[in-house]
User: Fold 3'(2'),5-bisphosphonucleoside 3'(2')-phosphohydrolase from Klenkia sesuvii.
Amino acid sequence: MNDVELAAAAARAAADVLLPLRGGDLAGGALGDAGDAAAQRAVAALLAEHRPDDAVLSEEAADDPVRLGADRVWIVDPLDGTKEYRAGDRHDWAVHVALWERRPGPGSGSGAAPGAAPGDAAGDLTAAAVGLPALDEVLTTAPAPVVPPRPAGPLRVAVSRSRPPEVARAVATALGADLVPLGSAGYKVLAVVRSEADAYVHAGGMYQWDSAAPVAVARAAGLWTSRLDGSPLVYNAPDPWLPDLVVCRPELADRVLAAARREA
Assistant:
């Protein structure tokens, strides 16, 4: 398997354990804990089998500092949107599997890794898959998804169901857009890819595993991805915290970023 095929296989392996658990006797926190653990085992087993020399940064495993010197790091969220997964009747949760690769240094040949963001001197995301188990879908960086045409009507901004940030409200007001509350961060990014929303604006922080795979898929699909100030999203940083995020149709990027800056 190449790296994208492995990412997709890992996302499907997680789905294969998450869906039966969701249909079983567990509920609430017990279901969420069981799902997190089972999906982590499924993804970790495939990565260990097929890429034993690669480092891994996962929400459900201890952060091994060896990743900071590694050339290849898998960034994984085996169950993104545990609250929605536990709800039973929601589909807006996901499985994230992304590969970060170090960019060759001066004199080593090939320049930036595919999809690399300007300004990131270390490396960037080169392969990814996002599974949507409740919809029986896996979206990957290759082949990249085709973003459907935007439907008629007001623009739509995806936001957190539980705590929509004020900057997202400001962006929606500036665009004359409707807010679309959704669950997991990964699903909100893919809502833009799937044309269920036109932008996703987040502030208040998340972790690198919350967005690495969906951002890679969004980039491959031709969408704009950045921090709220327009700077690049940097992955495999020493601190896994990522303060904010914008994903949108490229033709909206200037307006979204301008509104975000005014709010800031």
User: Anything to note?
Assistant: The chain has seven helices and twelve strands. The chain has two domains: 3-140, 156-263. The first helix runs from residue 3 to 22. Residues 106-121 have pLDDT under 50 and may be disordered.
